[in-house]
Amino acid sequence: MTNNNDNNRKSLRLLNQYTIIVVLIWILIVLASLFWNLYRTRRWTKDIAVHVARAYFEKDMAFRRWGASHGGVYAPVSDWSPPNPYLKHIPERDITTPSGKKLTLINPAYMFRQMLTEFAPRTGVVERITSLKVLNPDNAPDDWEKEALQRLEKGDREVATFTEFKGKPYIRFMRPFITEKPCLKCHAFQGYMEGDIRGGLSISLPMEPYLAIEADTRRTTVLSHLLILAFGLFGIGFGSSRIRKHLLRQMEMEDEIKQQNKFITTIINSLSHPFYVIDVNTYEIVMANTATLAEEEAPSQTCYSLTHRRNRPCDGVEHPCPIEEVKKQKRMYTVEHIHYFKDGTPRFVQLFCYPVFDHKGEVVQVIEYAVDITEQRKLEAQLQQSQRLECIGMLAGGIAHDFNNLLTAILGYCEIALTDLPPKHPVREYIQMIQYTGERASHLTRQLLAFSRKQDLQMKTVKINSIVEGIANILRRILGENIQLELRTASETGVIKADPGQIEQVIMNLAINARDAMPEGGKLIIETSDVFLDEEYARTHEGVSPGPYVMLAVSDTGEGIPPEMQKRIFEPFFTTKAKGKGTGLGLATVFGIIKQHNGHIWVYSESGRGTTFKVYIPVTKESATAKQAIEKSDDIKKEDFSPRQGTETILVVDDEPVVVSLLRDSLEPLGYRILEASCAEEAIQISDEFEGRIDLLLTDIVMPDKNGKELAEIIKT
After folding, report:
1. Hey, is 454 helix, strand or coil?
2. 635, pLDDT greater than 70
3. Which residues, in sequence order, are bridge partners of residue 126?
4. What is the tens place of the pLDDT at every residue in 414-463?
5. Which residue from 33, 198, 254, 350 lies 20 to 30 Å from 274 (Cα-Cα)?
6. Residue 91, SS3?
7. Which residues, 6+ apart, have CB-to-CB distance to 490 below 8 Å?
8. pTM, whole model, 2 decimals?
9. What is the rounded CA–CA span in Å between residue 377 and residue 382?
10. Calculated CA dihedral for residues 153, 154, 158, 160, nearest 10 degrees
């Protein structure tokens, strides 16, 4: 479109130039015609004057021949016709008639002179006979006539000159007198012979009438040429104006089309997803928006080279070709494809394909609008993984809770049995083995409860740096000498609300996993910093709410985690370690603890290039507690414990009867009164009906109807 407008502007400039050239040519043509016609008018005027002069000459010569052929005429002698003294040599110049009347010879020259004397005043034409050898001095030539006679004697047939005569414009014309036989009667004595040039007939014709006609003709010619010039210029201007209007209109239309195209292009380019038009026969991309070509150094020529990085059209084996489907169905078609960036990175896209028809109703082009759903697929995968982990957590939590109740009874009765048995009893060793195995099982159940987020947390407002720095020395002992521990803690971080022991457990589990991934040694890096997760991050990470977080990152330089395993690493009992090297609950425990803190954990890893776990815990507005140091179990002073007798009343509530039995069997021998309930409703009823004072409530936290905390609040009131 730009080229068309440039061509139109060039045409407009050429039109202006050509218009000026045509105008100049037209003016030159009209002026040339005018000057030619004016010249021709002058020539016609002269030619007419010459023709008239010739006519006078022929008339005079006819008259003279008539007179000469009759030998002259005799006329009565009078004052008008006295005897011609120049004819004295003629014997019969004068005669007398029988009646006595005197007559004199009037020769042609005498007769001609008398006629011209009468004729000249009437016409203004001056005619006379002249010669270089005159008989009558009155016929002597003037300067012009003398020159003309000389030219005639040299051979000119006639002499015609436009000049002033008597102060007025005249044409002076002369032709020779040829001596004829009748002329010898009067002029033989002068030595002339028949055929000699005896002189010439001079005719002086006034030009005023002819010049007046010429002037009128010139005016008419000039006026007509001015009209022709005006009409021509008008025609040129009109034609140029029409062409100019056409070009300007075309430019306006092209500008409008350009603006429309620009508007459409702007709209198309404003689309955040690729939009392109494909020729169905050649698969060439005839138009594409900027989102389509964002990853390209230059636009690809075909759709399969752009989207699939192939050098030939798709064969439909991997996925249906949308172009072929649109051609076949002749309607809108939607399909999901995998497209590839220039670096080979796959992207999941949803293609919306629309046919473009020709006048015959055949599909000639296909409009494709590709919506990148890669992040959506990732979010769906995250959601599915989260839902799977949630289901697994619910299952694990339920099993762990019930199993923990059973273990509590087992361990409790083991403790009672060991208390009652003498030190050297042979069964004591078996009971201790049962107790040891039960404690290991209890540890597993605690991990499962952590994963299922059903453990009771001791929440405090702390700073993450205090926890990291407090556990650093323990980590160095656990990691060994071949692994370097590097702390990159921020100078200051926000305050979080967390269970310090559980966060310590998270760091410990991640560090142990990192150690196992670096059997040949390496580096473990623990980083902390404040971050703000914005809306864009929240859109691409399932479950994340925008806001300020404290980040804890644990990175290693180990073997890395393959992509197919990253989806399952937080599942309980899933492990890549050899048999006996791990329970598969370490990362599951980490996941449960972080989720119970309303936080998020993500893994970033490549095979052979190490792994990074990033933990995000929300910042709290509460102030950190004054005492943030974490007390270690080996720092707690153990006090001597000896059973004490009591008389108080204890209400025991648990939905597992064996646990209630264990507590009853353990406390009643010590003098306590035990009230038993299998659920919260039963406990409330016992509390309301019991007339005495209940001194202590021992209740399970998780129960079908109400949890232990709710039950405690109700009974207290």
Report:
1. coil
2. no
3. 204
4. 888 888 888 888 888 888 888 777 776 666 665 555 544 445 567 888 99
5. 254
6. coil
7. 465, 528, 529, 530
8. 0.41
9. 8
10. -110
